[in-house]
Every structure is written in C-alpha cells, then in structure tokens.
Amino acid sequence: MKSKQDGVFTIELAFVLLFTSALLVFTGDVAFQLLSRVSLDRVSYSLVNVLKERTRFYDDHLSMTSAEVDELDTLAARLLGYAQTSETAPYGMRVEWMVDERYSFFDRGIEGGAPCIPDDSLKNRAHLAPKTSSDKRFPLYQVTLCLKADSWFNQFLGKGAQHYIHSSSVMPGR
Questions:
Q1: Which residue, 28, 30, 59, 139, is most buried by CB atoms nearer than 10 A?
Q2: How far apart are CA 126 and CA 129, in angstroms?
Q3: pLDDT tens for residues 139-169?
Q4: Could you count the other beta carbons within 10 Å of the beta carbon of residue 42?
C-alpha cells in the first residue's frame, strides 16, 4: 500500500541524519581531545626534561624557586601556543619535585583559579627514584599540565560544555 507510506521515508531519513550528525560530532570531539592530549603530553615531557637537565647548569641547586616556575610557565604558554601565561590562558601547571626525600610543589592554576591536580602525585612515587652507588636517591621531578577543553558532544547532548584534559610526566634528575 504505497499510499499509506508517503511520509515513512522522510521520518526514517530524519532519524538517520540525526544519528549520523551525532556520530560526526562525537568523532570530531574525540579527535580534538586526542590532539589536545598529545600536545599536553609533548609539552609536559619537554618541561620535565628541562627540569632534569637544569642541574647540569645550576650545580647543586636541585629545588625550584617561584621565579623558575614562572619561567617554566612562560615556556609552557609558548609551547602550547598561548602568548600569555596561565593567568589568562586556559591551562594550569603543577611542578613537583622530591629532593633528599623532601617533597615540594608549585601550582599555577587554570586561568589563575583552580589548581591542576595530578592523578598520581609525586609524593606517592618516591620509590621510583633511582639510587646512586653511595645509596643516595636522585631527585625526582614531575610536571602536570591541565587544559580546559570544550566538549562539542556534551554541548550537543545539552550537558556541561567544559572539562579538563590532564597530562603528567615524571623524570629522575641527575
């Protein structure tokens, strides 16, 4: 009965197009978040390498100062493609170090606000630091970056649009 099926094609097409557009938005959102995560991984690894190698140039000065963390923040802003530091950029940074089994850290919050909390703090990883032949532990450094990201798929579903992407890198010093 062709006369009773005149609107069926239109209704089915609407459902298929809605499903296809949701799938495309979800795929684009996942791709964007993966690219952001790769960028954060690259920058956090580069920054922790800078911390590790700084002992070569600063002799026995293994701990960080606030001014040095500010310089790392400026470097992170440049590597992430922001002209300014984290006070105006949508990323945050936490620098942690453990020297002589003493734990310290500095936070640079996201847009000057919420701190960037790593999934696993360096305080819990002290056993990872290798020992020298004289049974002294090497310093251990960790840089965690957080990026505020918009989620297209969450906007499409009507949920909150923003969430945070994290990346941490750990490296023993010299």
A1: 139
A2: 6
A3: 888 899 988 877 777 776 677 667 788 888 8
A4: 15
Residue 1 — pLDDT band, cuts 50, 70, 90?
low
Give the C-alpha separation, 70 to 66, whole Å. Answer: 6
Beta strand pairing call for 91-99 and 140-150:
antiparallel
Cβ atoms of 28 and 120 closer than 8 Å = no
- The span from the CA of 21 to the CA of 132, in Å, is 58
Longest dimension (CA), the chain: 91
DSSP codes, the chain: -GGGGTTHHHHHHHHHHHHHHHHHHHHHHHHHHHHHHHHHHHHHHHHHHHHHHHHHHSTT--S--HHHHHHHHHHHHHHHT-SS-TTTSSEEEEEEEEETTEEEEEEE-GGGSS----SS-GGGGGGGS-B-TTSPBPPEEEEEEEEEEE-HHHHHHTS--EEEEEEEEEEE--
Residues in contact with 121: Cβ distance below 8 Å, sequence separation at least 6, in sequence order: 96, 142
Beta bridge pairs of residue 169: 143
Beta bridge partners of 148: 164
Mean pLDDT of 44-58: 81
Distance CA 96, CA 86 (A): 17
